[in-house]
Amino acid sequence: MELISRINDRSAVIGVIGLGYVGLPLALEFANKGFKVIGFDLDENKTKFISAGKSYIKHIASERISPVVEKKLFSATADFSRLPEVDAILICVPTPLDEHREPDMTFIENSAKTISRYLRRGQLVVLESSTYPGTTEEILLPMFENAPAIQLKSKAAGEFISKYHTDKETDKFTVGKDFYLAFSPEREDPNNANFNTATIPKVIGGVTPDCLAVTKVLYDQVIVSTVPVSSPRAAEATKLLENIYRSINIALVNELKMVFDRMDIDVWEVIDAASTKPFGYHPFYPGPGLGGHCIPIDPFYLTWKAREFEVNTKFIELAGEINTFQPYYVIERTIETLNKYRKSMNGARVLILGAAYKKDIDDMRESPSLKLIEIMHERGAEVDYNDPYIPKLPKTRKYNYHMESVELTAANLKKYDLVLLSTDHTGYDYKFIAGNAKVIVDTRNAFERHGIKADNIYKA
User: Fold this and answer.
1) Which residue of 129, 163, 389, 399 lies most exposed, with the fewest beta carbons within 10 A?
2) 70-90 mean pLDDT
3) CA angle 217, 223, 225 (to 5 degrees)
4) Distance CA 237, CA 299 (A)
5) 96 exposed, middle or buried (CB, 10 Å; 0-12, 13-18, 19+)?
6) Is the pLDDT of residue 3 over 90?
7) Closest CA to 184 of 90, 109, 252
8) Given this model, what pLDDT does residue 163 score?
9) Structure confidence by residue, pLDDT tens digits, 411-434
10) Cα–Cα distance between 363 and 291 in angstroms, integer?
């Protein structure tokens, strides 16, 4: 097979659609292994950063980008008409939920439509975006099979057609013969010190045996190991299982946190004690709510798809309800804490520490801090935030706050009625904060973990 030969001798060109937290590190892994990589993104600011050898993601250093850009192994463009230049197209675009908590497939569908206009014989297309079982074969496959007809009807692809095709309008591509299609779920964990893109095993599922074979050869070049499964649906379901497992267990400890609080039991102490058991237990930790692009979203992809088969996913939905309630629980605890100091939430000045969804990254996706700000604004509080990695809150699909990070000085800390820790960044000077804040609500047990206990520190 010609494509496998090109992959093995590193002459294959890799295309990555979507240069975000998944696509950029994946592109860099291929470039570092000697493949020529072209990144595609509609955000021209990202392509300009790449062209200058600079990073726009905190945990990905510019020093990882500039060498491969200088060697002309990595470039970025917003011109998708260059898709015929690549041999493998890896799709790494967002898959959010809409306002009804149903899958928003816009990014995947638009990417597939664009690829269909330029797909040529011999190319491999791999979807990496988290999604519901069936997406690859129900959405992408029909589009790509009908690519020749789509191309003939597209004026924009006229030059491409004359260069690559002599097909009649009625002709179709055959998967596994004219092109290859697979699903391989991303498993990124931003700023994880123990695992990165190259060291996390990769699950792969091809539409046909040849699709699987090509996909395995491709990822074997850069990933420590590949895990073939029987179909794209099995691979899509694998990603959902991974994140549903985490969502349910986080919901469990969040519920126990609320129960134990009523019993005057510290859930963090209980978790630490349970963790001493060497078998049959794995610790999960409570927090102010779920964040990131996977855990708050992926379970609802399965609940939505399950309805097509007349199945109710009660367990998953219950976990979602508990986790979604956590920001409201934190606000309840914050109101109770303010009341102890004869303060009401209405009119209180509150400083939120941490805007990212987890510590030591600049990723705002689904961050519970955004929901906390919304709820406190609704209750009349004056809210500021500090985050060393996010100087200004970016516009998101749901929120558009015009807020900038305030400096953590002694004078600033003292002027707030309450400091709410939402994200436990390593760089915070917890002793300094505790020494200058009037009242603290800690949703991560960060102060106690740093050996700081005080009467004005409350857990939520």
Assistant:
1) 163
2) 97
3) 80
4) 10
5) middle
6) yes
7) 90
8) 55
9) 999 999 999 999 999 999 999 999
10) 9
Reading the block at residue 314, the tokens are 């009660």
pTM over 0.85: yes
Q: How many CB atoms lie within 10 A of CB 16?
A: 29
What is the pLDDT averaged over residues 434-452?
97
- Report how far residue 429's alpha carbon sits from residue 231's, in angstroms, rounded to the nearest whole number: 49
Asked if 40 and 16 touch (Cβ cutoff 8 Å), the reply is yes
The pair of structure tokens assigned to 350 is 């509150």
174 vs 146: CA distance, rounded Å: 9
∠ Cα 62 64 69 (to 5°):
85
Please report the pLDDT score of residue 296 as a whole number. Answer: 83
Q: What separation in angstroms does the CA of 355 have from each of 59, 111, 360, 384, 404?
A: 16, 30, 11, 10, 11
Over the stretch 82-140, which tens digit does the pLDDT of each residue have? Answer: 999 999 999 999 998 887 888 899 999 999 999 999 999 999 999 999 999 999 999 99
Nearest to 207 by CA among 131, 130, 125: 125
In what side-by-side order are the strands of the sheet with 74-77? 74-77, 36-40, 13-17, 88-91, 124-127, 180-183, 202-206, 226-228
Measure the CA–CA gap between 173 and 157, rounded to whole angstroms: 17
Going by C-alpha positions, the residue among 426, 299, 301, 407 that lies closest to residue 358 is 426
pLDDT tier, 379 (very low <50, low <70, confident <90, very high otherwise): very high
According to the model, what pLDDT value does residue 298 have?
84
- Alpha carbons 316 and 339: distance in angstroms, whole number: 35
Residue 165 has what pLDDT?
54
pLDDT in tens, 198-229: 999 999 999 999 999 999 999 999 999 999 99
Active-site residue, from 294, 297, 372, 390:
294
Domains of the chain, CATH where assigned: 2-230 (3.40.50.720), 249-459 (3.40.50.720)
211 is catalytic: no
The pLDDT value recorded for residue 162 is: 47
- Cα torsion through 10, 15, 21, 26, rounded to 10: -10
Tokens of 125: 């297309």
Alpha-carbon distance of 61 to 53, in angstroms, equals: 10
Of residues 197, 211, 263, 257, the one with CA closest to residue 57: 197
